[in-house]
Amino acid sequence: MAMATTLLNAGSVSSVTQSSSSGRLSSSKSSVVGQSFSLRPLIPCKPRSSGIRCVKTGSDRKPENERTLLDNASNLLTNLLSGGNMGTMPIAEGAVSDLFGRPLFFALYDWFMQHGPVYKLAFGPKAFVVVSDPVVARHILRENAFAYDKGVLADILEPIMGKGLIPADLETWKVRRRAIVPGFHAAYLEAMVQVFDNCAERTVEKFEKLLDSAQQEGKSEIEMEMESEYSNLALDIIGLSVFNYDFGSVTRESPVIAAVYGTLSEAEHRSTFYIPYWKFPLSRWLVPRQRKFHEDLKVINDCLDDLIKRAQATRQETDVEALQQRDLTTAQDSSLLRFLVDMRGEDATNKQLRDDLMTMLIAGHETTAAVLTWATYYLAQNPDMIAKAQAEIDSVLRGRRPTLEDVKKLQYVKLIVAESLRLFPQPPLLIRRSLKPDTLPGGHKGDPNGYSIPKGVDLFISVYNLHRSPYFWDEPEKFNPERFLKAKPSDGIEKWAGFDPTRGQGALYPNEVMADFAFLPFGGGPRKCVGDQFALMESTVALAMLLQKFDVKLRGSPDEVELVTGATIHTKNGLWCKLSRRKSITNLN
Ligand code: HEM
């Protein structure tokens, strides 16, 4: 368990742009991956230099005699474990020390290139199966979803989220998922666009005030740390939309905000620490960060309990259909909590409601902030993309704030959001543990019948690998929002973007169905994110409102932006940008 926890983030700082290791691809490996796709209508392309950044690979890799005792012990265990009942599954031969000093998912990518789309990674006494194949991902997430649970992730999150959807046991999950999913109905999303507008407006106003002050000093730009700004913005949005609480974090500080950040930081720390220290008896009283964590948790729980009681005191019993048909845009409180409390049906306990709210607070906050951060990271290096987005924003919004109908029309901005999620999926790995023996889809070289997975195996579905796979994406490292517009190639398989918009059935954003699980920004199957449309719209509105008013560029060079991972991929020292008022507004006449 401790090892698994460590694996979530074994030393995690790295520059966003690093040297390529893709020269290590061999033709036999490409056929391994290619064959796995004979099961589906996707066209495998020949892997080419991807420019993927992996630190210690190829000539960088340490010579054998420099490997540590730990590495050798690990390799021995790897060999022992290879005789296990996972058959001929390739084993990652990388040294354990390769994992340190860079995010785990970089190493997992290297091994994907070396060993193919399903391999076993031995780490200490435990083996993990790493999956970078859409067919296998689809099997685990959708076709045989209930043969797996969240494994180590649930262990880490349960003390914070209780029986919220992410760590919940299957029985609880079924009941709560049925109650929560209808809450994200069309009328709710429409009302939420106004909440997104109001919150983004606060950020715009804050920047405008700062620019006014700068102007008085003769400056035309301000330096802003955008990751924190997005974090505040996303917190305000999640508070208002999920439980009708205004954190107001864009403009002020409060004990509740401090407690939320403290709790988020503890969740992050737990996902990156070797030992599950929080499980030690007395740790709560002896370890200062544990004491602080429990104090923070109490502040948030008290706040949520109070909000739940208030919502119950004003309960208006209704049913899902009536709520869905109502216009919520003028309602005093159109939050998800209101929906959960008012809805007819099985009453949840107050503790369960609190767990649900806490889960959505954590699941919906950092993730969205990270999407906006990485979108800005790329836009700030591409003034032509900013200009294109601004032309679209001007023509759709004509100076207004976005409505739901506008969001639908902001095609290019939506693709920017999707492309940011492709390059930086949040989280980069989906974690599962097998609850019973299973057989993965076969078709790989060496496993025509599919690998056997015994009960109790931990699996990582590497969304990062899938999203940057040179087998499915043309120039996978390149930020190219318009790649999603390309259907199957007319000029040869190498140009195919791994994506078929005709399978979308009216979807507003690229999704896993269109890409047949080669694009998985919100997971897939029954455990797919409940807030996917909410998050995509929120990100689109926030970007549109900021680009409507400002130009942005990086303060330093892109290489200076270091990344760290926990549950999400974020920057080590913030995303420092220079913001100025827009130079050119598109002439709409
Ligand atoms: C860009 C923002 C977001 C991203 C990238 C994201 C991503 C994901 C992913 C990948 C999963 C599946 C995890 C797995 O299969 O192990 C998930 C689950 C979940 N997400 Fe999101 N999410 C985002 C925003 C939100 C928001 C805004 C909410 C709620 C308001 C939310 C609530 C949830 C919940 C409750 C689950 C668990 C679903 C279940 O197990 O039934 N997420 N999210």
Could you give the distance between the termini? 63 Å
Structural class: alpha+beta
Q: Which molecules are bound besides the chains? A: protoporphyrin IX containing FE
Q: Helical region count?
A: 21
The proportion of residues forming helix, as a percent range, comes to 40-55%
Q: Low-confidence runs (pLDDT<50, min 5 residues)?
A: 1-13, 17-84, 489-498
- Give a count of the beta strands, DSSP E runs of length 2 or more: 13
Write down the overall geometry.
Answer: globular
Please state how the strands of the largest beta sheet are arranged side by side: 2-3-9-6-4
Description:
Keywords: Heme, Iron, Metal-binding, Monooxygenase, Oxidoreductase. GO terms for molecular function: heme binding; iron ion binding; monooxygenase activity; oxidoreductase activity, acting on paired donors, with incorporation or reduction of molecular oxygen. It comes from Ceratodon purpureus. Belongs to the cytochrome P450 family. Its cofactor is heme. The structure is a single chain. The chain is globular and about 70 Å long. By secondary structure, the chain is an alpha+beta fold. The protein has helices at residues 2-7, 27-36, 69-82, 104-115, 134-143, 152-161, 170-180, 186-216, 226-243, 255-270, 283-286, 288-313, 320-325, 336-342, 350-363, 366-379, 383-397, 404-409, 411-423, 463-467, 532-549, and strands spanning 14-15, 118-123, 126-131, 148-149, 221-225, 429-434, 438-439, 452-453, 458-462, 550-554, 562-565, 569-571, 576-581. The strands form four sheets. A five-stranded mixed beta sheet has the order 2-3-9-6-4, with helices on both faces. The chain has a three-stranded antiparallel beta sheet with strand order 1-11-12. The protein is 45% helix and 9% strand. The chain contains 21 helices and 13 strands. The structure holds protoporphyrin IX containing FE. The site of protoporphyrin IX containing FE has 22 residues, from helix 15, helix 16 and helix 21.
